[in-house]
Amino acid sequence: MRKLLLLTFLGFLGINAFAQNYTPAFTHTSGTQVYNTASPVIPISVTITPVGNPGSTTPYCATGPYFVAYDASHTGGYHYSFSPAVTHVKFEIADFQADDTLYMRVNGTLTPITSGMLSGYLPGCTTPAPTSSYVAIGGKLTSTLGAGNNGVTLTYASAPGTISSIELVHDRLNTSSGGVVWSTYAALDSCMQPFQVTADSPFCTGRNLNLHVPNFPNTSFSWTTTASIPMPVAQTTIADPVVPNLQLPASNGTYTCVATRGVCTYTASKDISVDLTPKKPVVSQVGPKCAGEADTVKVNTSPNVSNIIFDNFGVAHPCTISPFNFYAIPNIQISNAGIYKAVSISLLGCPSDTGSANITLNSLAVANFSFDLMLGCKEDSVQFHDLSLGNTQWHWDFGDSKTDTLPNPLHIYDQQGSYRVRLIVNNARCVDSMTKPFSINHPIEAKFAISDDSICQGDTIYFTNQSTVTPGTATPFDWDFKDGYTSNLFEPKHGYTYYGSYNVRLVVTDYLGCHDTAYKIIAVDSLGSASFFSDTVICAGETIKFAGDYSTIGGTYALWDFGDGHTIQDQFSIQHAFDNPGIYDVQLNAHYRVCKDTTYHQNIYVNAYPNVDLGPDTAICPGGQPISIGDLINSPVSNPNYHWRWNTETKDTTANIMVHHPGTYSVTVDNNGCTAADSIVVKKNCYIDIPNVFTPNNDGYNDYFLPRQFLSRNVSKFDMTIYNRWGQKVFETNTLEGRGWDGKFNGTDQPEGVYIYVIKVSFGNDTNESYDGNITLLR
To answer: Measured between alpha carbons, how far is 748 from 726 in angstroms, rounded to an integer?
Structure first.
């Protein structure tokens, strides 16, 4: 049996001139444990997770505990995670045999195994395998030997990076071998830490040079330079030295630092090229100017530099390259006055010292004024008061195309309205102006509207006050309705008792005592009337006479409306006929110029002549069932106002009656006085003879019981049944042409005696009759 043992894995950051300090071999196969490296002591937390199905843990030849069983289903390995990340990982593999293969992933990425990572390994019970016994093929570690306890070391170094995780997997080809065992180690090489020289730029003449390297603990530093001016001795042994007062070109050169920390030595350099610092700029002002004018802040400095001007609020304003070194203030104000500063900057970024200047303005002329309104009924005056400062001249624009140059003018406005008054002042250098709006608004206008300019006698008219007065002032309103009545309400209403023409007046007085008057004419017309007389109930087609009466004073026309689509105009008396029954709303409408139109209504009830139909003549069988005759069109339900009168002995008053005897019957129908009549003849039409005995002895006389004679030819249906005295049916027929009962039952003569018959007959006039009785059989 052959056996493959994977013994130890180690990954590292880089290759140094001195050996790495590895942790002891890992002893756990899952979970997390901490292992310390040798001096310097660095704790490394290792989390191990099995990959695939590696099988039972079986150390071999003092190697392990990572084992993959020989069964093909147990191909797999282990995944290692490190905190902090390490720089070296080493695997010691024992008994590496033919067809055994290994591959690995570093930081989650499949990483090829190369021959430079491989070396011999002598486990506790085997000899080192010759170099030719293991090769790296296709990125995998493969054995070239047969069975035997062969060992190999796989070392992975990650320099200049680090290893956060690594995974080693056994990819078995030969399923007959016994298994794979390996041990694992890790190292963290601190000498691989980054080390470089940095400097605060820019490097300017007259300024200090600030150098920096990483300040490792327990580390000594040694600085040297190729510049002609040496570094201060006190600054050559610290991590952050300062070289004062750079000179050009004496301070140009390479500055080198060598840092020693234990076995680690770090070396780094920085080339320094010094730039000329610009001279301090001179700041000046083109002005001073007056507020609102344009002014400029200028900078005089070295050539080929850029400049930044800082205003009195500290806001930076970059300037263009010389000679355009200025900052324009297009509308300077008092708030712009103050200290302005400037800094010049070389092409390589060296700043100059700060220059400054105090920016000022000319003495100001400040315009200001107040005013007093003096109102009147015909014209208004305004007194203006100058409140300006620093000025010697005045110019007033009163907003009505008129001007003045006095300090405190009095101005008369002959029109009310809104005005903008402008005062312009100056002091021979600065000019200022102020504009103030004001309104002269104390209007007075008497104006009103009326609900109508023509009303009817006794009606009320409503007045809407549309007058204009100064808002917020108490104003009396005097109304004169010209019929002896007045009012001081804001919006009164008034009714006129008598017809006529009235010129209503409104007088308005404002708080200044000014007056205005408005007039409107109101026409008041007299009232009108309408009525008529006529019958109220007639029959359709009859003529009715209407006698009308209406007032013509102020009237325009009178219109009759009969409610049936017919109208006629301007007639006092008229006759009219209604063709159809119904209730008609007859109106006489009298129309007037102003007063409300008058309408007189009266309902005319037009009754219809009733239609009555008793149907066709009919027939009855005397002594038989009575028949019903009656009005086939009308009924008390559908026509509750109808009344019926029959010519019967009993003077029946119903819509239908029962008739027991032949004869002529008539009825009169009355609908509120409108009558109609109809009659019907009831004939005798029944010839049925029912015998009470028969003799079925074959002598040719009365041999059959059949109560129908040939003269009864109006019979349409006939049913007869015979029962004996015990209730047994002995005969039955419904034929109209048969001979009747021959006295036999089932071909056997029946005994003499009394039998019972039941007969049902239908006649051609749709009447039905039933008969029952006794028949005696004799022989």
So the answer is: 17
pLDDT tens track for 407-429: 999 999 999 999 999 999 999 88
pLDDT in tens, 604-613: 999 888 889 9
CB-CB contact of 475 with 508 (8 Å): yes
Q: Are 621 and 769 in contact (CB under 8 A)?
A: yes
Cβ(289)–Cβ(272) below 8 Å: no
pLDDT band for position 363 (cuts 50, 70, 90): confident
Asked whether 769 and 625 are in contact (CB, 8 A), the reply is: yes
Closest CA to 487 of 497, 496, 495, 478: 478
CA distance 79 to 32: 12
Q: In which residue are the tokens 């040798």 written?
A: 38
Which contacts (CB < 8 Å, 24+ apart) does range 352-356 have?
352/277, 352/278, 352/279, 352/280, 352/281, 352/301, 352/302, 352/305, 353/280, 354/280, 355/280, 355/281, 355/282, 355/283, 355/299, 355/301, 356/283
Question: Tokens for 585?
Answer: 């709303």
Predicted confidence (pLDDT) at residue 2 exceeds the cutoff of 50: no
The encoded tokens of residue 339 equal 């200290």
- Per the listing, tokens 């005592």 go with 513
Cα separations (Å) of 715 from 210, 690, 761?
147, 14, 7
Domains contained in the chain, CATH given: 9-191 (2.60.120), 193-272 (2.60.40.10), 282-359 (2.60.40.10), 369-440 (2.60.40.10), 448-525 (2.60.40.10), 530-607 (2.60.40.10), 618-684 (2.60.40), 693-777 (2.60.40)
Provide the pLDDT confidence category of residue 684 given band limits of 50, 70 and 90: confident
Taking the C-alpha atoms of residue 721 and residue 120, their distance in angstroms, rounded to an integer, is 137
Residues 6+ apart with CB under 8 A from 640: none
Among 38, 140, 22, 15, residue whose Cα is nearest residue 82:
22
Q: What is the pLDDT of residue 101?
A: 81
Q: What is the pLDDT of residue 6?
A: 33
Q: How far apart are CA 323 and CA 332, in angstroms?
A: 23
**pLDDT tier, 75 (very low <50, low <70, confident <90, very high otherwise):** low
Residue pair 583/575 in contact by the 8 Å Cβ criterion: no
- Range scoring the smallest mean pLDDT among 178-187, 224-233, 383-392, 696-705: 178-187
Please answer whether residues 702 and 691 qualify as being in contact, where contact means their C-beta atoms are separated by less than 8 angstroms.
yes
> For strand 515-525 and strand 454-456, is the pairing parallel, antiparallel, or unpaired?
parallel
Q: Which of 522, 478, 464 is nearest to 496 (CA)?
A: 522
541, amino acid identity: G
